[in-house]
């Protein structure tokens, strides 16, 4: 670990992945990338290179995913309201990290975010920025950093828009990065072949 952030990582892994498998038989986060590494494990591994504690938020019944993320080094939180969307999952992760000094929120289906990007977000957040987001070619991506002053707003999140309204209503410290991985998620089997 080149840089150890004071923030707590929150890895959101409670989605249903219906575009990857409409029948719901295969969890895309357990699917392997071309090198054989499961998607969620790689996402967790990259986040853990920068923060010492990562809370992986999964939905109830995702026991295999919970074991994988626990084995990767994450503390697993089951979001009882995960079916309500990303906002509810993020709120569950924040609620489970009462002593956090800030949060770096990443998505488990984005395994190609450069560790240097995560470190840049962490350094800005640790340096006093309240909200931090990386941008690639003008588009905002992940992970996103939230200072402790946003705890109440994060706890109040619900639905599937996550923290988008918070990011649009507040000043965000913008980090321009040369990292297309901040926008690349695994939504389909074809995406898996191209990560």
For the structure shown, list the relevant keywords.
195 residues; alpha/beta; Spore Coat Polysaccharide Biosynthesis Protein SpsA, Chain A; eight-stranded mixed beta sheet; 8 strands; 30% helix
Quick recap:
The protein has helices at residues 39-48, 63-72, 86-95, 115-126, 151-155, 164-169, 189-193; strands spanning 8-12, 54-58, 75-78, 102-107, 131-136, 139-140, 144-147, 173-176.
Overview of the structural elements:
This protein is an alpha/beta fold and 195 residues long. It has one domain (8-193): Spore Coat Polysaccharide Biosynthesis Protein SpsA, Chain A, CATH 3.90.550. The chain is 30% helix and 18% strand. The chain contains 7 helices and 8 strands; from the N terminus they run βαβαβαβαβββααβα. It has helices spanning 39-48, 63-72, 86-95, 115-126, 151-155, 164-169, 189-193, and strands at residues 8-12, 54-58, 75-78, 102-107, 131-136, 139-140, 144-147, 173-176. Strands 1, 2, 3, 4, 5, 6, 7 and 8 form an 8-stranded mixed β-sheet that branches. Helix 1 (39-48) runs parallel beside helix 2. The longest helix is centred in the middle third of the chain and has 12 residues, at 115-126. The chain is globular. The protein starts with 7 loop residues before the first strand and ends with a helix.
């Amino acid at each position: 670990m080149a840089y150890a952030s004071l923030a707590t990582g929150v890895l959101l892994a409670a989605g249903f992945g219906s575009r990857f498998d409409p029948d719901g038989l295969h969890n895309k986060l357990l699917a392997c990338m071309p090198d054989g590494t499961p998607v969620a494990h790689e996402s967790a591994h990259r986040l853990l290179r920068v923060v010492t504690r990562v809370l992986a938020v999964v939905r109830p019944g995702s026991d295999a995913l919970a074991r994988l993320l626990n084995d990767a080094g994450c503390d697993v939180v089951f979001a009882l309201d995960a079916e309500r969307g990303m906002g509810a999952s993020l709120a569950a992760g924040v609620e489970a990290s009462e002593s956090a000094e800030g949060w770096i929120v990443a998505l488990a289906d984005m395994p190609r975010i450069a560790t240097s990007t995560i470190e840049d977000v962490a350094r800005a957040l640790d340096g006093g920025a309240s909200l931090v987001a990386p941008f690639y070619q003008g588009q905002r991506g992940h992970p996103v950093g939230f200072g402790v002053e946003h705890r109440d707003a994060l706890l109040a999140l619900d639905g599937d828009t996550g923290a988008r309204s918070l990011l649009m209503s507040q000043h965000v410290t913008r980090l321009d990065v040369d990292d297309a991985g901040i926008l690349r998620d695994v939504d389909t089997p074809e995406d898996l072949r191209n990560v």
